[in-house]
Structure formats: structure tokens, C-alpha cells
Amino acid sequence: MNPTKQLALGLLALLWCALPASAADGPTPPKAEKKDDPGKESFAETTHTITVAGAKLEYRATAGTLPLKDDEGKTTANVFFVAYTKTGVDDLSKRPITFAFNGGPGSSSVWLHLGAFGPKRVVLGDEGDAPQPPYRLVDNEDTLLDLTDLVFIDPVSTGYSRSPEPKEEAQFHSVEGDVHSVGDFIRLYVTRFNRWQSPKFLAGESYGTTRAAGLSGYLQDRHGLYLNGIILVSAVLNFETLRFGDGNDLPYVLFLPTYTAAAAYHKKLSSDLRSDLPKTLAEVEKFALGEYATALMKGDALPEDERREIEQKLARYTGLSADFIARNNLRIDQSRFCKELLRDEHRVAGRYDSRITGPDSDPATERPGYDPSDAAVKGAFTAAFNEYARNELKYDNDATYEILTTKVQPWDFGDAKNRFLNVGPTLQKAMTQNRDLRVFVANGHYDLATPFLATEYTFNHLGLEPALRDHVTMGYYDAGHMMYIRPSEHAKLKKDLAAFYKSALPK
Known about the structure:
The protein is of the alpha/beta class. Helices cover 38% and strands 17% of the residues. The protein folds into 2 domains: 325 residues, Alpha/Beta hydrolase fold, catalytic domain (Rossmann fold), CATH 3.40.50.1820; 127 residues, no CATH class. The strands form 3 sheets. It has a 9-stranded mixed beta sheet with strand order 1-2-3-7-4-8-9-12-13, sandwiched between helices. A two-stranded antiparallel ribbon has the order 5-6. Strands 10-11 form a two-stranded antiparallel sheet. Helix 6 packs antiparallel against helix 8, helix 6 packs antiparallel against helix 14 and helix 8 packs antiparallel against helix 9.
């Protein structure tokens, strides 16, 4: 054999043996895709049109993630967001932008997104009760998009927001870690999308109001980012006002007017108290902060005749029996109230919205087995978002969209361990240093998660100087924690917020 030919055949044999078995045995498989860079931005953009107050509004929706990086440039988390920006805006310095989020801790932003402020809303019953599945979205006639661009943020471990290293997500599950990560995302978004000169607002609900108050300080101090306004929906800044427990009588006082509102709604009060609810609530608030608070402060030293008088008044204002109140030592916590109010009907009242009730699965127990006002909305919002993200926003992701997760527990309260978290001083400091910062607080009369008197108490103890007190505006709604799920109150909220934005924007 020709030496050259022999060498060629030998090399060919060596090459054949070196090939993987799959290549030798059949067609070459497709190359494996390169693993995505955990720090890579990922967006899906779509364009839409909506009619608000009779005017056509064109907007761009951007759904995707922005990576947060540490000082060494390592990606620590990819934060999911959905942004809505009005198209055709020539001067972004005149166009406000609002960063919105919910609470939990452990909640995605879906509630404010598809319930209150976004251009689409979930269809619910006339009173905010659950419709029959399957669920659907419609244009939101009360969206804030005609007033401001909107960015809905899912904190790490909620929604589609994840850390590349799941074991490291615990660093975000704390008061401080949460504020820092959301604040750093806002700074990054403002930079990435050229919004430093835009008027900037925050909107938070429930624990999201705790986050918003924390952000008011962190954004100013860490990033030099000053806000024009903050919207607090169903606020909790001082947890002492909400946490029932031995040695803390404050919540019993502050929940009382909301118990009255719930009892009136379910016709458990006398007709004279139900005929004029605002008047009744003012009467009960005066009693709560006066006679009732004084009685609780006396403790076991309360004279027997005064105790009996307080029992009778509490029975009149709550619809509960004087005997039940006596057995609970004048102190009715929220869960026992929700169980007892409708016990004779074998139903329980909702915590988030005491207007909404459900069957009592175990009438013999002292506390409800579930919250019917939560059950009324969770399925509808979950299904609607998953359909909307893939089919309208064109954002494909097979991961679970964590609507409300327990993966963030136990939540680290940091410096507030062994005491009650209170971010009120942070908000007070931010308002003092940024004297143009304005705050709007939305309160639901039937909210047994963050009752309105607790919020009033918090702001009355904020320590603002007199010149700044009128920078806080309170709104009240005949609904619960998510007042926007009741159409009439959603429209009222939109009207109130339109006035708020006007007051907070540069003149």
C-alpha cells in the first residue's frame, strides 16, 4: 500500500475512534445550549392601548428581570418586574414614575398590579367576592397609568424573582435585606431606563407599607434618591399596634372600631348604631381611646362595677355577648372576633375583609380555620396573572410564579428582635429632610389585618413638626384591606389618588 495512503487511513481510523459513541452510531445531536448568564438582563416588550376617562392612551409593557450584583460584580438575585410606560412622551422629567409592591412578607406585587393600579384588572363579584372559575381580565378603567408610569416589583423569592444560588436567598428575607434589595433595584431601574429626572413615587400595600417607609430613608441616604410621594395602602408601620399578646393591650383598643364596622355590616348591632355608621365609629373611637383604654390600663385593679359597665358597652359595640367578653377578660383578639361574630350562623368573617364570610368547617373551635376573604381572591389572581404574563406580556417562564410564599419565613426582624418593629421614625426622618415629600394613606373600614384606628394612632405618634402634618392625607373606604376589589371604592381611591399626585408634583 502506498505509504501516503496508509498514513491517511491510519489518521482516519484514529479520528473515528476519538468520536463520541453517539456521533459514530448516528446523526450528530444538537449542541447543548449555553447556560444563561445569571446576571443577564431579560425583557419582553409589547405595546398596548387603553381608554381611560374617555381618552385613548398608548403604552409599552416591559416584563423581565434586572440583576442585582454585589461589590465584586457577582449576581446575587434576578428581580422580576412589569413596567408600564406611556408612549410618545418627549420629556421624561415631566412624567411621574411609581414603583409598586405588596407585602406579606412573601407576597408578589400581583394584588396592586392586577387589582388596583395596572392597566388590567381581575374580574371579581360586585362586592369583591370570588367569581366562578375560569377567571378573566378586563381593562382597568381606574388604572393610574394616565397619571404616572408604573413599575411593579416582586421582591426576591416572590413572583419570578430568584437568586442564582437558592441557599443564599435568606439574605433577602429580613427587614434590612428586603429594603436594600428593593431599593437597589429601584436605583438600577432609574439608571437603566433614564428616569433620574422623573418625579418618583412609591406605592406599597400591607407589609409593603413597612417596606415603603424603610425605603424612604434608604433611597435618600444610600442613593441620594429623593421621592415626591408615597402611597400606603392598608398601612402597618408600628407592629405594636397589631400584635396581640400578653402585656400589650394596645391592639385591643385600636381594633375596636373595626369590630364595630364589621358587626354593623352583618346586622349584629342595634338599629340606632347601624343607621349612621360614621357617627357610630366616631363614638366608638372616643370610647376606645378613653374609657376602654383606661380600663385596660387598670388591669386587675379595675373595680368590679366599672368592669361590668365596660363589658356591656363592648357587647353593644361588637355584637358579641357580655358573657363572652367577660370570659376573655375584656380583651378580644382579631381571630376570636372573626370566629365568634357569626358563630350562630356557622360562618366565619374574613380577616382581610370582614364583609366577606365563609362556612365554618369546625364550629367547636375558638379560631377560624381559614380566611374566607383570602380564599375569595387568591385563585382568581393566580390564574389571571399566569395567563396574562405568557399570552399578553409575552413573557415565557416555566417556573412557579410565587403569588404568596412561605419560603421567606422565618423573617428576620433584625434590630427589632425582642421588641416591636417600628419604621415610623424612618418615615419621619425622611419627611423632615425632604420637606416636599407627601404621603397618602388608604384605610378600609372593614380591614381586620391593619385597622384604620391603628394607622391613625401611628401617624399621630410620628413626631412630625406641625408644618409637615398636612403632608399626610388619609383616605377612608367602605371595604377591607384590598379596598380596590369593591368597584365603588376603587373608583373613589382613583379619584383621591389623582388629587394626591397633583398635590405632590412640582408646580
